[in-house]
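Suppose a colleague, Dr. K., hands you the sequence of a protein chain of 365 amino acids and asks what its three-dimensional shape might be. Before reaching for any lab equipment, you can write down a predicted structure in token form. Begin with the sequence itself:
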Amino acid sequence: MSQLRTVQVLGGGSAGSSAHVGSLAAGLVARGVQVTVCAPAAVDRAYDFAATGARFLPVPRRSDPAAVAALRAACTGADVVHAHGLHAAARTALALSGRTAPLVMTWHTRRYAEGARRQILHLLERRAARAAAVVLAPSSDLVDRARERGARDARLAPAAVPPAHLDGVVDEGKVRAELGAVDRPLLMAVGSLVPQHGFGTLLDAARAWRGLDPVPLLVIAGEGRDRESLQRRIRDEELPVSLIGSREGVGELVAAADLALLPSRWEGRSPLAQEALRSGVPLVATAVGGVPELVGDAAELVPYGNAEALARTVVGLLGDPAARTRLAEAGRVQAAGWPTEDDTIAHVLSVYDELAQPLATGRGR
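The predicted structure, expressed as tokens, is then:
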């Protein structure tokens, strides 16, 4: 039997999906699979997919004829093509028109839109779900959504991402000093500064802990279109919050925190939640998407958009060291039971083999 050939297609390349593709590419190459990664050049500069042993081809995040033609050429001869995200799947479906290579889509995250954009998003989800031979999703609600959009085969799939601090050694004192939280509690949040990540609600909650002594410092790592408006609120309301932009070594920041906060409207297998529980950092998160499945009883869950509940939970944990210790211990136990990178790669490879086998039989492979 000849070597299995796969193409991994990324669109904009969120941190979670890009890290997942990097892990997947490395694992597949190690198992003798020929892997090509197609993504915008900027994503490769951040993640260096060629270092995994995969071949990298720059393909812009566009659906114009030139971009689709480049992707079509990259997929020539592939046994399985795997698109990560809705836009990547829809564009890849165009590129594969008339081809026999099966398309796998991993639906990494849920998107939101209002007005006319909501209908466009619905059509995009429907097109992507129906084009894929198999849709993989990290949470049960996304599996259900894929089926509602017409997916022929939608499955819950493990999607492990390697820890951000691989050596396991974090100089917490140094990290806290750099952030300005030596003698005060450090609260850590991470994510793109966009409405669906709930940072506006987080700033609402921050007003409630200004009266604590010492005053906790909330640090938010990430960039996005809401940065200016969030910074304006922090200044005008004199909130104990620091926006530090995109940072490498986010795992070290989380490991040095007293609490990790995840106020999002939706999350699948949140990298922040995974870092927090692995590191034994108590997590306060919204009870949305795949978060309850991921964390079990090892985190405090609050309703999305409820600043009062979020603030009350944070203040309660800061005043209860025993509760924080219990959550830290429960988090490590919960994390130990998550699927590993090997589990993730083995599952994906089994899907590839399942789809490629009929084609191999037809070609006499």
